[in-house]
Structure formats: C-alpha cells, structure tokens
Amino acid sequence: MNFDSNREVLDWYERQERSLTPEFIGSIPWDKVRDTPFDEKFVPVLFYMRDVETLTDMYHRELARTPTGRDPDISKFMERWGVEEITHGEVMNRFLNELGYESDKKWQDQVRSAVTKAYKTNAFMLTTLTNLIGKKFTATHMTFGAIHEMEAAQGYRRLKTLTDHPVLNPILDAIIREESAHNQFYWSVAKLELSRNKTARRIARFVTERFWAPVGQGSLAKRRTQYLVKTLFSEGEGLDTIDAKVTKRVTQLPGFEGITKITDTISNMAATSNVPFEAALP
Ligand SMILES: [Fe+2]
Ligand SMILES: [Fe+2]
C-alpha cells in the first residue's frame, strides 16, 4: 500500500473493522478452555503479553505530551489504537483466568503501578528531550511503533504455533489482525516521515541502533522479557521468523538499509537467558 499523507493512512486505518468486537469476545467458548491441556511454560508469556498490552495507554499518555502526539492524524489513530491494545490485554487476562490463573479485580491498576520508577523517570526525560528535538522525532516514534507491532504480531504467531490451543487460536488470530493494521499505520507514517527529512532519518537510525529493545523491556522486569524471548524465539524457526518478518522489513525503511539490530538483540537474549518459570511470572 502506498500513501501520500498521514491523513490517507489514517483514513485507511479507520476503514478497518475491529476483529475483537464484543460479539466476537462473547462467542468465545470460555468454558472449553480447560478441555485442552495447556503447557504451563507459556503462562508467563501470556502474562507478559497481557501486561505489555495494558501498559500501552501509559505510553500513549507519554506520547501525547510530544509533537508526535500533537499531530492530529497520529493522535486520532492513537485514540483507537490505545483502546484496541487494552482489549488485547483483557482477553489475555480472561484466558488466564479460565485456565485457572486468577487475577485481582484491579489487575490493570496493579500492572500500571508495578512499572519501575526508573522507567517513569526515564520516560519523562525522554519526553522532555523529544520536545526539544521536535517534529523530527516523529519518524523515530513511528519506526519504533512499527517494529513493536511487527514484533508483537510475530510473538502471537509463534505462541499460536507452539501452543495450538483450540480456544486460544481464534483469539490470537483476531489479535494478530489488529496488530497488522497497527503495523500498517505506523509503518506507512514512518516511511512518509523518514523520506521527508534527512535529519529525521539519521535520528531514527541512531536511536534504533542504540536503544531498541523488545517491547515491554524497561517497563516490565527484564527477566520477564528474557523468558519470553527464550521461550518463543530460541529455536531456529522462531529466530528465522523474526529476521524475515521484522528485521528484513525494517531494512526497507528509508535510512535503515542493512540494519540487523532486532535479530541480533533477540538472538543474543535467547542464547543467554536462563530465567526459571517462577521468576518469569509477574
Ligand atoms: Fe496488541
Ligand atoms: Fe498493536
């Protein structure tokens, strides 16, 4: 798909229908979750995904304080995007509950308040810094968004392949469809913003090479990220998928020729991580 302006990308996004409608969620046979065994080793992965999705609105609020968040098309997108990610967290939580992993009524508040203070200070500094750089930082935000969405979609795909659970499969398919639409938005706006300005390209590439980390690292405990990466991407096929579906796609963005950062980071983390099950739970 080719777009000439952020507005066109937004119009496209707004034409996409939601997959996780209340009707869809209501039709999920929740009472059948326990009929099929579910390998316990994927439980921390589900919790991780639930929490990352839930923290999206924190990120959304941070971004709202920057020139990126003040772009009318981007902020319009982010309103709906934030709602969709919250739903992803909610269905993950419901699935966990049905599996037998109870969560507190206020689990969403708990997830938010558990975010490390270091992260909050860091985010605040970054936002302040971003305001100094101004509009040229939008390309970086959009590039990070695109990478995170692709990575999330691949994480869900991989989880689906490895668990192949009849109730979880259609839920993951629906989430993946929404993640793909998010990616399309970020990706297309990133491409437009990067192609417009050389400084924007240089900043985006520099920040990605320096600071890119799997989504959730920083806001959640690092051991949880390590566990997820090892569980989903340590074996050949997992890593190959990251390389083909994320890294190779990123190299197609203006200014990102030859970048290997994502595959390198995931591969190193998978090779060195040795986090036991209990330590990977929230
Ligand atoms: Fe999501
Ligand atoms: Fe998403």
Overview of this protein structure:
The protein has 282 residues and is mainly α. The protein has a single domain (38-280), classed as Ribonucleotide Reductase, subunit A, CATH 1.10.620. Helices cover 71% and strands 0% of the residues. Helix 1 packs antiparallel against helix 10 (168-196) and helix 9 runs antiparallel to helix 13. The mean pLDDT is 93.
Structure summarized in a few sentences:
By secondary structure, the protein is an all-alpha fold.
Can you tag this structure with a few keywords?
Ribonucleotide Reductase, subunit A; single chain; mainly alpha; 282 residues; binds fe (ii) ion
Rg value: 18 Å
Give the quaternary arrangement of the chains.
single chain
CATH topology: Ribonucleotide Reductase, subunit A
**Number of discrete domains:** 1
Structural class: mainly alpha
The H/E string reads: HHHHHHHHHHHHHH
Rounded average pLDDT:
93
The first-level CATH class name = Mainly Alpha
CA-based shape: globular
| Count of extended strands | 0
Number of helices: 14
The CATH architecture term is Orthogonal Bundle
Distance between the termini: 39 Å
The amount of beta strand, in percent, is under 5%
Strand and helix map with partners:
Elements: H1 6-15, H2 22-26, H3 43-54, H4 56-64, H5 67-70, H6 72-99, H7 107-113, H8 117-133, H9 138-163, H10 168-196, H11 198-211, H12 222-233, H13 236-250, H14 261-272
The structure holds fe (ii) ion (2 copies).
One fe (ii) ion binds next to helix 9 and helix 10.
